[in-house]
Amino acid sequence: MSLDILAVDDSRTMRDMLRLALTQAGFTPHLAEDGIDGLEKLKGLTPDVIITDVNMPRLDGFGFIDAVRTEEEWRRIPILVLTTESAAELKARAREAGATGWIVKPFDPVKLVKALHMVAG
Amino acid sequence: MAEIRAAFFVEAEELLESLQDGLQLYDDGQRDDETINVVFRAVHSIKGGAGAFGLDELVQFAHTFETALDAVRSGALDPDGAAVKLFFRSADILADLVRAARDGTDLPADVTGPVLAALGELTGEEEEEEEVDFQPATLSLDLGGAGGDAGGAGGLDIPGLPPLPPLEAPQAPARSTWTIRFAPHDALLVSGNEPLYLLRALAEMGETEVSCDCTELPGLDTIDPEAAYLAWTIRLDCPPPEGDGPPVDEAAIREVFEFVDGLCDLEITAEAVEPPSDAAALPPLDPAPDTAPGAPADVAPAPIAAEAPTPAPADAPAAAAPPAPDLPRPAPDSKPAAKPAAAPAPEPRTATRPAATVRVDLERIDRLVNLVGELVINQAMLSQRVAEAGLPPNSPVATGLEEFMQLTRDIQESVMMIRAQPIKSLFQRMARIVREASSDVGKEVRFVTEGENTEVDKTVIERLADPLTHMIRNAVDHGLEKTEDRVAAGKPAEGRVTLKAAHRSGRILIEIADDGGGINRPRVREIAEERGLIAPDAQLTESEIDNLLFMPGFSTASEVSSLSGRGVGMDVVRSSIQALGGRVAITSRRGEGTTFSISLPLTLAVLDGMVVGAAGETLVVPLNAILETLTLGEEDLRALGPQTHVVQIRGGFVPLIDLGTELGYRAPLDNYMGSTVLLIGQEEGQRAAMVVDAIEDQRQVVIKGLEATYGRVPGIAAATILGDGQIALILDPPDLIAGASGRTRAANLPLAG
Description:
The complex is a heterodimer of chains A (121) and B (753). Chain A is of the alpha/beta class.
């Protein structure tokens, strides 16, 4: 069974890398460009995991998580935050926003996969 | 992977552009949140991508830059003019670093140093390498290697990156046994984490024995489905790592619980750690741990464990996990072909890709452009054949051909449009030139651009960079007065340099304007006389004096600094613009400034031309050079001097030039009465009447360059292949006229004898 992963990042490079890493690990990637786009994509898809960047135009990662978490249907979807900082403060913020976990950019595909397994089996 | 890397650099260029734009807006006073956010995000995204490819110098710089921008974003820093200048400078260096990383070149260290220091000062932060915060496990691989751009995103397939030798001495403990007590809080479940998966992750590290503590579990009637009642005790027995894999240590176990750190009670105790030497020597010991779980030390080697060099006892949470666990592993995913074979490999990349743009190699486009060029030639040949066959113009063949012609033209235009791109990138480079030049000469300069979305052929943009740089530098250095002179003249202290682009009647018009003192004409004249460029008594109009600046030998770079006017290699500027099929003109007003106007063809590949005959040769005159065509009557011609004629056209006199004579095909005719002439217009408003034998056709021709083979030929721009397969030269009329002898009368030399 291949897990559906929604990855939200405004950087094309990052999206490309996520797609590559996810595809190679046997996941099914779905990509969105920012929070708004992510919410759009969620309308037609209930992913097993959401991966989201923090700094994005229109709707940033925390706002996106907030919107996802207030929706009963999506409330339980594990969300991993992509962050370039590993600072404890940022993780605390991510958790406060309702994230399940985080991935430090630049991500190691092996760790990405591990993290995905950690939150979604 | 290489593809993604290339895509990163494309994206980085776009990000650099929006960074420039954002900074410019910010500098222009638009200091809202979104503006600074855009700037911040651009730097941030570059940093993110750069990190993925192990471009550590770029990451380091972007990080420091980003920190300063973040301070602005959060309101902790209110940048003054100098700070904004520093941001511009930083953006420039960031661009250099991106390009250096892309091209695999190095940037001199002394370039980044001072800017990093200045940025650090802004935020009151040390700019040293203390920023280890942003050094996740994989990246440190490259940081250690100091290699720079080879890139090292852990598991991805980066060729040529040998697996690093294990960091620690080889006698790391091989086998270990752990007892882990894990009691989730309610919040753990709310956060979306699932204990089951964590237990599974542990099970992947070794043998586990899990016992569940359900003493807290209430009766079904009072149970809260979202609360955590269960706790687990896990006994984890880790075998020696396979191959050169890392041994399991406490940090590795904590890493499993990274996401739930603080959301659960977690105790990890090491039971026994065997040194590898023993493990190797005494393999039968392996299945030993049969004693009761939870006992602190159950096997013999326990005392040795105390001495065994446990790597990183890690009292820090897993976030600080040392690079070790993943490092030495030679990238399990590194063979992309092998992996998907095992995995279901869902359809790669096509499905979700945004379809707005496609990136294509320039080479492919150029090939297409060439092919379309051939198509145009072919179509012209076909038309000619059909005409020669004497088919009536309303025959199906002729009308079909007409449609074909229209279609060819449409295809050609569409193909040309693929090559076109906004001139913005070039303008942004010029913004940098202005910043650097103005700080070099100590002038305050505001750089204004207009029409930066004007689309221009890519090659034209590239080849414009040098002349434009020259002209912009000149505008700052020589065009603008010194600040004190400006103030004295009642002008704002800040000088202004404007760069504009626009489409005008099938050409591109680029203007470089300054609001400086204008050309000092008496001085220009003086210099031209000193250098023997003009006769001391020459009668020159203002525009002619201005154009002296373009004369070769007017000035050299070493002398211009003492000049109030301009002149750094303007002849070079002009010839490079001419090589693009363009023209430069100057207008200047004393005290108000100088404007250079460059007019360029939209594309370098085709041109609309008039096919003419002169002395039996077929030539092409670019249509945009021709103002009108006329037939000379007797009353139009006036002799001027012993060898030249002028033509009277609507009250003005225009020199008469015989194309056949100028190109050396024939001697001047005895009489030009009834001759066909083309009235040629030039950028400076000057005109000339060019005699041709006949006008044969008006059509689009494909430009085939001659310069590569013959060098620059005066008066000739290029060549083309006509419909009948004949090769015809394409004229460069202004150049031809400038170099023309104007001989239209046979030399009246009474030959002796």
